[in-house]
Amino acid sequence: MTEEPIEAVYRVRAPAAAIRARVEALLLEQTVELPREALRSAFALEHMVGSVLSTEEEGPGCYRVTLAQPALSAAGDPAQLLNVLFGNCSLQPEIELLDVRVPAGLAAAMGGPRFGISGMRKVADVHGRALTASVLKPVGLSVAESASLCGTLAASGLDIVKDDHGLADHPFCPFAERVRACLEATERAAQGTGRRTIYVPNLTGSPRTVISQARLAGELGARAVMVSPMVIGLPLLHELAGGLGMPILAHPALGGSLRIAPSALLGKLFPLYGADAVIYPNFGGRFSYDRAECAAIARALRSPDSAIAPAFPAPAGGMRVENVRDVLGFYGADTLLLVGGSLLGAPDGATLLSRCRRFVEEAHSFPYPP
Amino acid sequence: MTEEPIEAVYRVRAPAAAIRARVEALLLEQTVELPREALRSAFALEHMVGSVLSTEEEGPGCYRVTLAQPALSAAGDPAQLLNVLFGNCSLQPEIELLDVRVPAGLAAAMGGPRFGISGMRKVADVHGRALTASVLKPVGLSVAESASLCGTLAASGLDIVKDDHGLADHPFCPFAERVRACLEATERAAQGTGRRTIYVPNLTGSPRTVISQARLAGELGARAVMVSPMVIGLPLLHELAGGLGMPILAHPALGGSLRIAPSALLGKLFPLYGADAVIYPNFGGRFSYDRAECAAIARALRSPDSAIAPAFPAPAGGMRVENVRDVLGFYGADTLLLVGGSLLGAPDGATLLSRCRRFVEEAHSFPYPP
């Protein structure tokens, strides 16, 4: 009764005459890390060595290779899974990780999104339309300024206002005071709007700090948090999701430079490790993903091929009040729309409020299901 | 009394006509994340916005750009420092991080190697020559097989025997039993050799698991541990180093694919976060670094430009018994030589023992200082 294998898809660049040997080396590198002839352990040969499922030529000297690795090699461990997928071969520039599929047992051990799309909709009490979000920035605002901005954004009817991912426990805007003040600001705004915007604090630091920030955020009444999994470490996202009891938004900082396809890293691994919504650079913004990449990320999040819950795509950037409906036409309404700079560039609070209201109206009026 | 800034050096690809604007955008992206004209906070403008120290043309459309970012932006936080250096701009393929210099205050907050070269020499009681090390692999060995291999390697007189980085708490070789058995194997070998080889367990998993493995390893008598900082998260390395009381070897898994120069990631950031010895792919092996890159990593580790202790370069791969002295000729004797596959490919235990003894003899006979 062996568990189904982990499937990993790579792009491998090698001359045709060498591809067979290159793929064999890749297969062994990720688990036993010795050539087959040096394996004198029968157990290792039988249970740790995977197999090559397919090698397809994509172009001259460029192959799409699918490996099956024993689920046992990952030991149900969120760190070791990364080693099996892209540990040592990350050091080999001719290798890219394109796709990942984990078997049901490992997916269950990893946990996946604990809230996902349906759980986040319940927490936000938003059904039948896209979620709208904006962000507290620039870093450098005081607690009072952050809370004031948070209050204005909440008053516009946004569903979510999140910290910038670069907001840490800075001395000019300490975490505990900021979270308390921003939650109060959303309470006050709710008296006008009739619905309480979810303020999402950014958790960052060493694991000890992140865990204690999470606890404090919960005690103060936060209903969701954000982390940057590549900055704090994917295994900490996994640990956090296991005991948090509220949705986690994941930010892609530090994650873009890996030779891992964004649809695999952001679309598959982030939710596998517990993200309920995944922020990624939308097409048309100041980052580099094109429409096809963005569509692939959204598809992977909403239709997981492992036994985990669907997660929200949260495209950010490249959005203005004027094109919200076009963006929703592209993604459909099971989307968390994150608009930052194009709103926050407003010259004053009144303009900011009216811009945000228009953004919210545009998003609310988009038909669902699309 | 403002602290000295963090200096970050990037390669930026942009047309000459656009480079000025591109560098301004990079400068702001990493801290305030809004265009200058949208910054309505005087504090943010004055204290969060860094400056461009230099922009040098390396070639057509390719520039070496040095930025000074306010130390305050990192908040003395090991996660937030990564954001300031390479958070959002990791998502922009035209940007590479080439070098990093942190001011003394931030270096002190980060801690650096707690043992470094001199502390590791004391722990190993090795002075006046290079340290020698090998590895327990393949993954798939049982506890008894691991301990037996560890005993053979220790009997050859190696200073260090470490776990493979892919060894987790696998059911066929559980962490606690493995560590206990391997430490006992080094004890037994010491009765023959007169000196006790340091067995280095690999810590991996979520932060909670890693911290509990570290505690257990210490209780069982381990004198050093290994982690893969990019797999478990650099901030966890920082947390671990703060309270561990023994040297930490750092493995580069998952770190190779970042658009960060290896000399910056492995040579500067790993020790800044607390690594006492840094393993990296040696030239001539199955990985991609060339001699110049390897020399730059070793130089950065041994001669830190921030106020932290020097750390051991631990080149791995591309080494055989026959070229140990050449490798030491290249690096000098303040080196931790890690030889794996070329020893472990031995057809039997007797051959393995004699090969390891030759490796040890070659390393011991290299003159110091070179």
Approximately how much beta-strand content do the residues of chain A carry? 15-25%
Number of helices of chain A: 15
> Low-confidence stretches of chain A at least 5 residues in length (pLDDT < 50)?
none
- What is the succession of H and E elements of chain A? EHHEEHEHHEHEHEHEHHEHEHEHEHH
Description of the molecule:
- The structure is a homodimer of 370-residue chains.
- With 370 residues, chain A is of the alpha/beta class.
- Chain A folds into 2 domains: 6-110, Alpha-Beta Plaits (2-Layer Sandwich), CATH 3.30.70; 116-364, Alpha-Beta Barrel (TIM Barrel), CATH 3.20.20.110.
- Chain A has 15 helices and 12 strands.
- Chain A has helices spanning 19-29, 42-48, 78-86, 104-110, 116-124, 143-155, 175-193, 207-220, 229-232, 234-243, 262-272, 291-302, 324-331, 341-344, 349-364, and strands at residues 6-13, 51-59, 62-69, 95-101, 131-136, 160-163, 198-200, 225-227, 248-250, 277-281, 312-316, 336-338.
- A 4-stranded antiparallel beta sheet of chain A has the order 2-3-1-4. In chain A, strands 7-6-5-12 form a 4-stranded parallel beta sheet, with helices on one face.
- In chain A, helix 11 (262-272) packs parallel to helix 12.
- The first copy, chain A, is elongated, with a radius of gyration of 22 Å.
- The model of chain A has no long low-confidence stretch (mean pLDDT 93).
- At the A-B interface, helix 2, helix 3, helix 8, helix 9 and helix 10 of A face helix 2, helix 3, helix 8, helix 9 and helix 10 of B.
Summary keywords:
homodimer, about 375 residues, alpha/beta, Alpha-Beta Plaits, TIM Barrel, 2 domains, four-stranded antiparallel β-sheet, four-stranded parallel β-sheet, 15 helices, 12 strands, about 40% helix
